[in-house]
Amino acid sequence: MEEFALGAMFGVYMSKQGEDGKLSKQAFLEMLDEELPSFKGQGKNTGEEIFKGIDMNQDGSVDFKEFALMVAGYACGSYDTLQKVMKEAQKKK
Ligand SMILES: [Ca+2]
Question: What are the EF-hand domain coordinates in residue numbering (predicted)?
């Protein structure tokens, strides 16, 4: 999937359920199921686990920065890569 498409997707789900430019956990899980089944399907990671990995500041929602990091990880092709990307991002904070 193109990264641009992922960005557009974020906008759609954000307007649907998010608030203040964030995706709620519920909206995020819905998006995973509907748009990115392969993201979950390729590993043993559940949507819950992926959400926890992505919600860096642990506020219970995914903001655009967190989403962008997910896209970067997704573009690299695997959840393992994504976890590395997230860890690096956290170190830099
Ligand atoms: Ca967050």
Answer: 42-77
pTM for the complete prediction?
0.67
Centre of ligand 1 to C-alpha 71, Å, is 15
Q: Can you give the CATH number for the domain in which 21 is found?
A: 1.10.238.10
Residue-wise pLDDT for 9-36, tens only, equals 777 777 766 567 788 898 889 888 887 7
27 CA distance to ligand 1 middle (Å): 13
Q: Which domain holds residue 50?
A: 3-92
Calculate how far, in angstroms, residue 42's C-alpha sits from the geometric centre of ligand 1: 24
Centre a 10 Å sphere on the Cβ of residue 88 and count the other Cβ atoms it contains.
10
